[in-house]
């Protein structure tokens, strides 16, 4: 606990502040377009001397604010019934809290060795989910069956636990979940991804604040960057063809998977 408290009180130089602002802006932009911003922001915090647990908590705070800011750009695409939305939000709250409490009680390094396998599975699921679920015509639309809603909620609970614990690539995992249950409209998927990710990271953020795990100086600078990157990228992304965004998601997911395999096993 003493080590964690020292991590949250590190000095911040001007060069580090500029670096963290840029990393936050890029991370916020990635999250607004495809997810994966944590794979920019989290290593940046580690590079400036913040410990793994504090870096993860601080990264969650910064990118949560950035993702929330980008949500307005997708609001016109969010046309999901309460019958579907309420179970997904409820499981996001529960899972986010469970994941955050697990992080506080376990070493982050343990999860870092499992993370590349989770990212590999999520990227493959997103890439091929449409083919695997081609016969699911309703998806999670207004006419979804109770079984489809239940299945999506269980999947979202697992994603939320993962997101509350680490959060790296949670956007891609949520997109993978939505693809697996039959959604095909990329902009609608991004809209729902922003809502669910905001709930998960919001619950985790308040948990980290309550336990004193956030490095506030670094967090404030990175949050400002994430706000700028998240807002502008969300608006620009809607001008791109959906096929381009889908390819970008797969490329980002593949790159993140390779990065964390190298980091964990070399």
Structure write-up:
- 77% of the residues lie in helices and 0% in strands.
- The protein has 266 residues and is mainly alpha-helical.
- Helix 2 packs antiparallel against helix 3 (38-47), helix 2 packs across helix 4 and helix 7 crosses helix 9.
SSE order and pairing:
Blueprint lengths: L1 H6 L6 H20 L4 H10 L4 H19 L11 H24 L2 H25 L13 H20 L4 H11 L5 H25 L5 H22 L4 H24 L1
Mean pLDDT over the full residue set: 78
> What does the largest sheet look like?
none
Through-space gap between termini: 28 Å
Basic shape: globular
Oligomer: single chain
Count of DSSP strands: 0
SS field, number of helical segments = 11
Helix coverage percent: over 70%
What are the secondary-structure elements, in order, as H or E? HHHHHHHHHHH
Number of domains: 1
Structural class: mainly alpha
Give the C-alpha Rg.
17 Å
Strand content: under 5%
A few lines on this structure:
The protein has helices at about 1-5, 15-35, 40-45, 50-70, 80-105, 110-130, 145-165, 170-180, 185-210, 215-235, 240-265. With about 270 residues, the protein is mainly alpha-helical.
List keywords for this structure.
266 residues; mainly alpha; 11 helices; disordered N terminus
């Amino acid at each position: 606990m003493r080590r964690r408290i020292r991590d949250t009180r590190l000095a911040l130089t001007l060069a580090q502040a500029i670096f963290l602002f840029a990393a936050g802006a890029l991370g916020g932009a990635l999250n607004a377009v495809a997810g994966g911003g944590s794979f920019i922001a989290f290593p940046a915090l580690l590079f400036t001397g913040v410990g793994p647990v504090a870096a993860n908590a601080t990264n969650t705070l910064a990118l949560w604010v950035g993702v929330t800011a980008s949500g307005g750009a997708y609001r016109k695409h969010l046309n999901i019934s309460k019958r579907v939305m309420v179970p997904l939000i409820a499981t996001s709250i529960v899972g986010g809290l469970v994941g955050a409490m697990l992080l506080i009680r376990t070493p982050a390094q343990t999860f870092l060795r499992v993370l590349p396998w989770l990212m590999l599975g999520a990227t493959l699921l997103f890439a091929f989910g449409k083919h695997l679920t081609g016969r699911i015509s309703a998806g999670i639309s207004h006419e979804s069956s109770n079984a489809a809603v239940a299945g999506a909620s269980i999947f979202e609970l697992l994603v939320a636990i993962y997101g509350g614990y680490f959060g790296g690539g949670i956007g891609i995992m949520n997109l993978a979940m939505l693809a697996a249950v039959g959604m095909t409209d990329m902009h609608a998927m991004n809209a729902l991804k922003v809502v669910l990710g905001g709930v998960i990271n919001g619950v985790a953020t308040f948990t980290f604040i309550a336990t004193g795990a956030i490095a506030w100086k670094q967090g404030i600078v990175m949050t400002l960057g994430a706000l700028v990157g998240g807002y502008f990228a969300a608006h620009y992304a809607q001008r791109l063809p959906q096929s381009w965004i889908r390819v970008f998601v797969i490329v980002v997911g593949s790159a993140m998977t390779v990065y964390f395999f190298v980091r964990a096993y070399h």
